[in-house]
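Hey, can you fold this one?
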Amino acid sequence: MHDEVSSIEGIIAAIDDLHRRDPIGAELGYAQRMSHWLMELDSDPSPALVIAVRAQHLKRWECPRSEFPAGRAGYLRWRRNAAAHHARLVTQLLETFESDRALIDRVGALVEKRCRDRDGQTLEDCACLVFLETRLADFRDEHAAPDVARILGKAWQKMSSAARALATARALI
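Sure. Predicted structure:
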């Protein structure tokens, strides 16, 4: 168990080193908030989930939204492309740590949001909680009320009852 914890700590440190290269300086903070919410939602998460939560936006600056068409179709294409990019990068990183193939595959699937299980839901919950915590106020300022209501509704639908309870208790909405 000690070796597994040490290995995960080393992987997280390597992920954070990559986040520190973000020219905008946002990704390390995002990853830390993701990990914070993970611990709020699950006191004993799987190693794959711990890593996936931290790596969800790994080197996101390499996939600028501006390189895709405006509108919903362009946004969805960008999001799929970005998720695949993040998954590729974390897979490569895990291979340098000589991680077990099952762990590598599981982390990649979580980062690409291909998991429709408890871990996949928890990762989605973390992302929604970080959005509510860090972006909602700016989003409200930048968009019309109907757009805000629509996005909030979509986020709420994606969230588990536990995440909704946390959002309500912490007055994030």
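Residues 80 and 171 are 31 Å apart (CA to CA). Let me know if you want another pass with a different chain boundary.
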